[in-house]
Design goal:
Layout: E1 14-17, H1 23-30, H2 35-48, E2 55-59, E3 65-74, E4 78-83, H3 89-108, E5 113-118, H4 123-131, E6 135-146, E7 161-165, H5 171-181, H6 197-205, E8 215-220, E9 223-232, E10 238-246, H7 255-267, E11 274-280, H8 284-292, E12 296-307
Parallel strand pairs: 4-5, 10-11
Antiparallel strand pairs: 1-2, 2-3, 3-4, 5-12, 6-11, 6-12, 7-8, 8-9, 9-10
Helix pairs in contact: 1-2, 3-4, 5-6
């Protein structure tokens, strides 16, 4: 049985990366002091060659881990942050300090954005992220649809429009198109301007397994007007809709519905049986469109983000 320790007041701890000898303890703290879950996680990390070098911990004067945060580095110069669940206001402050150190180190390594996804009722974790500089930008609703007969009907392009698949030479065009679809967007508008378009596109391409044939470009009278990007998830039976956007002048004309129907038709005869997506629940038009296409909600997450740069620094960053 572990002897219970009181959390030391803020300032009576050292914050640094967890070296190999402290990683299991740090992961156990991250998972709410659940030893069995920590052992399973460490085994999974070894089997998948997961990098645990971005695990930061707050150590008390006896060297015990009092709080930990893990960063999962993603393409597009972003990182997803996870933090041990705070149990009281003092631990909220401690968690926020560890997150600030981690964010500063990630900025020095060239990342541009950190983010977190937390269930809306995890109020203490949300407070810790907010105290560390992240801001809530949306409540995301996760949805899924089972591909069936209704999706095997080929969509008719609206008059004057056409569909085609993404080609490698479309990279610059697609970056410009995505920038236009971000104008006055209702889907996570707080993200607009936080990253360069090439980073955003890199992120989309590396979300799951990139399938260029599943990326659809909508054109109207010869000009790009929208895009629907679907990748294969790591689970071979699941596809993920990573982005759908329409330029402002084409909205409200049924273009989004037609684009979505065409994209789902393209994968309806593949091995994928389920399509998943995440949408800002305040984006009523998108929620309505996805529901009409057979998507149903599964869960909700509070999305928090922070833009970081190399000016962020913290002299307490060091390895245990």
């Amino acid at each position: 049985m572990h002897k219970k320790r009181n959390t030391p007041p803020s300032g009576q701890h050292r914050i640094g990366r967890a070296g190999p000898a402290k990683r299991r303890e740090g992961i156990e703290r991250l998972l709410g002091s659940d030893r069995l879950r920590a052992e399973r996680f460490m085994r999974f990390a070894r089997e998948t060659s997961m990098d645990l070098g971005n695990l930061w911990c707050a150590f008390d004067t006896e060297g015990a881990v009092r709080c930990s945060a893990l960063a999962s580095i993603n393409p597009g110069r972003t990182a997803m942050l996870f933090v041990s669940p705070p149990r009281n206001p003092m631990e909220i402050t401690l968690a926020s300090e560890v997150l600030q150190v981690a964010s500063a180190a990630l900025a020095q390594e060239g990342l541009c954005l950190v983010q977190a996804l937390v269930t809306p009722d995890e109020h203490r974790e949300i407070q810790a992220f907010e105290q560390s500089g992240l801001k809530q930008i949306a409540i995301l609703t996760y949805m899924q649809a089972s591909l069936g007969r209704r999706h095997r009907k080929q969509a008719t392009p609206p008059e004057g429009s056409s569909f085609r698949s993404y080609r490698s030479e479309d990279r610059t065009m697609l970056e410009q198109l995505l920038a236009r679809t971000y104008i006055e967007t209702l889907d996570c508008p707080g993200l607009v301007g936080l990253r360069r378009m090439n980073d955003i596109l890199d992120g989309h391409m590396n979300s799951g397994i990139f399938k260029p044939d599943w990326w659809t470009i909508l054109s109207f009278e010869g000009s790009p007007a929208g895009a629907c990007l679907i990748n294969r998830a790591r689970d071979e039976k699941v596809a993920e809709l990573v982005y759908l956007g329409i330029t402002p002048e084409m909205r409200g004309k049924g273009m989004g519905r037609a684009l979505l129907a065409h994209a789902l038709f393209k994968i309806s005869e593949t091995a994928q049986k389920t399509v998943v997506l995440a949408v800002d629940e305040s984006n009523t038009p998108a929620m309505t469109m996805y529901r009409s296409a057979g998507f149903t909600p599964t869960t909700r997450r509070c999305a928090l983000v922070r833009k970081i740069d190399r000016d962020d620094h913290d002299d307490t960053i060091r390895r245990d």
